[in-house]
Design a protein that fits this description.
Oligomer: homodimer
CATH superfamily of chain A: Winged helix-like DNA-binding domain superfamily/Winged helix DNA-binding domain
Largest interface: A-B, 25 and 25 residues
Largest sheet of chain A: 3 strands, antiparallel
Number of domains of chain A: 1
Shape of chain A: globular
Number of helices of chain A: 5
CATH topology of chain A: Arc Repressor Mutant, subunit A
Distance between the termini of chain A: 49 Å
CATH architecture of chain A: Orthogonal Bundle
Strand order of the largest sheet of chain A: 1-3-2
DNA sequence: CACGTCGTACGATACTCGTCGTACTACGGG
DNA sequence: CCCGTAGTACGACGAGTATCGTACGACGTG
């Protein structure tokens, strides 16, 4: 407020910014739905392991760029991940703190379950 | 085999029996998908509280019988509930043991999360 | 400025899903 | 045997979704 930024200035290093749901707007059903897709569950698992400085293109998903964009948006709009532009790339990160505050232990349970299942099925 | 039942004999007290996935056939994605629908999440929550001797008609869901049947089937085929005929009624129960063995803590996390959210939103 | 890279937007398409209504079957009781 | 109750089967319909391709915009580097 005190800096009185004019308005059309988006931000220096960031570029344009993306709409995210506030914590109180995150719905359990949407989170579960977002996680119920194999491609998105894979994204979330990778994100949990690698930390939150991954651009969309580093995932090497077996789909086109359009479809990738779609899945990342579903995850973001459900409140599962946050996304920030950084130059030409878009960095992704899990909203672990927000999810843990809303649904304690849920994310870890799902990640553990996914890990165990991938071991069991031999695809992980 | 030794009894050599003709074939059309279904079973005595039980009536017809329904196909359930074996524990190793239960997929995390299917479980999450089954739980991501408000109506089904509601069924599962009620089942967790009331125990597993509830017939389909005791839920008083705001949908028709056809839709009810559909949701119960989705839950059964995902491995979330088991169903047994008992006379003209069909009794439902959570497959808590199987789910806990496959995905430890997941069911409790989701139930707790659902409970907290319903308190937060004032619809529970 | 020109170009390449990263990601978006939009339309198309095929599939899934939630819902309903109606017609039907299974079981139990008079 | 007839009827009522519990649930199923099937078809329909509208909404959502996962996918693609192509065209476009934003950013950084030469």
């Amino acid at each position: 407020m005190t800096t009185a930024a004019p308005a059309p200035v988006p931000a220096a290093g960031g570029g344009r910014d993306l709409p995210h749901p506030a914590p109180e707007e995150i719905r359990l059903e949407s989170v579960l739905h977002a996680l119920s897709d194999p491609m998105r569950l894979r994204i979330v698992r990778e994100l949990a392991v690698e930390g939150d400085e991954l651009s969309c293109s580093q995932f090497a998903l077996p789909v086109t760029k359009s479809t990738s964009t779609h899945h990342f948006r579903v995850l973001r709009e459900a409140g599962v991940i946050h996304q920030v532009y950084r130059g030409t790339a878009k960095m992704n990160g899990l909203r672990k703190d927000d999810l843990d505050a809303l649904f304690p232990g849920l994310l870890d349970c799902v990640l553990t379950a996914a890990h165990r299942q991938s071991l069991r099925l031999g695809d992980g």
